[in-house]
């Protein structure tokens, strides 16, 4: 059964052609600078090189923000990252000493890496410059909420718990009907669900499936669920999973999400839209200053097409 019961707020898709993907990826976060005259603390050193807190903070930007602080709060992780950075730094020095960074491919790669780091920092500044104030963002969010009520419509939902008897034969039906009689006679639904339900996921919650709307469950189950009255016990309901015995716990009529329910998501949408527009404007301004050499592009593509395919 589809146990999905989330109803995420629908969002407008940003259709600008430049850097929309970049909004979904972390850009370089500029690490806090040490006080004047105070160099960053050294975490590891040797072979004539060292790794500082600033180095670690820069490398840590690749770690997802939601887990970064927790990971860096463990000394063993910080030690391992510092060790890896130190090894890389020594390797880089050896490569430089041997002239390995002087060939055209290495130089191009270094230029691309530098461009990525600095452009990410510039984009972070563009985002900051185009981020509306909290009051302005909330005001725009309220305007969206009022102008597009259809986006926040909520369908009727029911809150149901069930017990599943596996199998579709006569023996399974008899078990389900016996269960119906016990429950209608006052037996504890949650206790019986934990003891007898073949749906082990919901059984651990006393059979509780939470709230769900239409088209979330198999048709036979859905029809029975929406036909029940509050606290009513169903008969044995057959589906492809077996026989279900349901109880309706609550019902939410169709309506509309309140602004407080969608405020956070809408404010985020407003901010992301403003930042995207700022990035697009900046990119378009840059594009006015150059053009792509289509002949060179065609020549390169043709040279690649002529390369033998990798086996």
From TrEMBL:
Gene3D superfamilies (UniProt xref)? 3.10.50.40
Q: Where is the signal peptide?
A: 1-31
Pfam families in alphabetical order: Rotamase_3
Q: Please report the stretch or stretches of sequence annotated as the PpiC domain.
A: 155-250
Please state the Enzyme Commission number of this protein.
5.2.1.8
Q: Under the GO molecular function aspect, what terms does this record hold?
A: peptidyl-prolyl cis-trans isomerase activity
Query: Which EC class is this protein assigned?
Result: isomerase
* Transmembrane helix as UniProt keyword: no
| Keywords of this entry | Isomerase, Rotamase, Signal
Q: Which reaction does it catalyse?
A: [protein]-peptidylproline (omega=180) = [protein]-peptidylproline (omega=0)
Family matches, as SUPFAM superfamilies:
FKBP-like, Triger factor/SurA peptide-binding domain-like
Source organism, top-level taxon:
Bacteria
So what family is this one in? Answer: Belongs to the PpiC/parvulin rotamase family.
UniProt-listed PANTHER family: FOLDASE PROTEIN PRSA (PTHR47245:SF1), PEPTIDYLPROLYL ISOMERASE (PTHR47245)
Name-wise, this protein is: peptidylprolyl isomerase
Please report the organism this UniProt entry assigns to the protein: Delftia acidovorans (strain DSM 14801 / SPH-1)
């Amino acid at each position: 059964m589809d146990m999905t019961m989330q109803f995420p707020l629908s969002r407008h898709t940003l259709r600008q052609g430049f850097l929309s993907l970049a909004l979904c990826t972390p850009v370089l976060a500029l690490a806090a600078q040490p006080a004047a005259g105070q160099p960053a603390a050294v975490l590891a050193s040797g072979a004539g090189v060292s790794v500082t807190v600033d180095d670690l903070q820069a490398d840590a930007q690749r770690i997802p923000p939601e887990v970064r602080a927790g990971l860096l709060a463990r000394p063993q992780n910080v030690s391992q990252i510092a060790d890896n950075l130190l090894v890389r730094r020594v390797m880089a020095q050896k490569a430089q000493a041997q002239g390995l960074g002087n060939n055209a491919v290495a130089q191009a790669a270094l230029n691309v890496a530098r461009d990525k780091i600095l452009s990410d920092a510039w984009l972070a500044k563009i985002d900051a410059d185009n981020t509306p104030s909290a009051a302005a963002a909330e005001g725009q969010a309220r305007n969206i909420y009022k102008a597009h009520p259809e986006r926040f419509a909520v369908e009727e939902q029911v809150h149901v718990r069930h017990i599943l008897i596996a199998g579709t034969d006569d023996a399974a039906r008899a078990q389900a009907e016996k269960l119906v009689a016990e429950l209608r006679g006052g037996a504890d639904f949650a206790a019986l669900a934990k003891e007898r339900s073949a749906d082990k996921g919901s059984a651990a919650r006393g059979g509780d499936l939470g709230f769900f709307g239409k088209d979330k469950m198999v048709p036979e189950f859905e029809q029975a669920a929406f036909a029940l009255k509050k606290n009513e016990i169903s008969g044995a309901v057959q589906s492809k999973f077996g026989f279900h015995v349901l109880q309706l716990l609550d019902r939410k009529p169709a309506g509309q999400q309140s602004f407080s329910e969608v405020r956070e998501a809408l404010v985020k949408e407003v901010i992301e839209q403003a930042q995207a527009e700022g990035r697009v404007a900046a990119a378009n301004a840059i594009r006015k200053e150059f053009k792509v050499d289509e002949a060179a592009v065609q020549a390169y593509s043709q040279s690649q097409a002529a390369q033998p395919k990798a086996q």
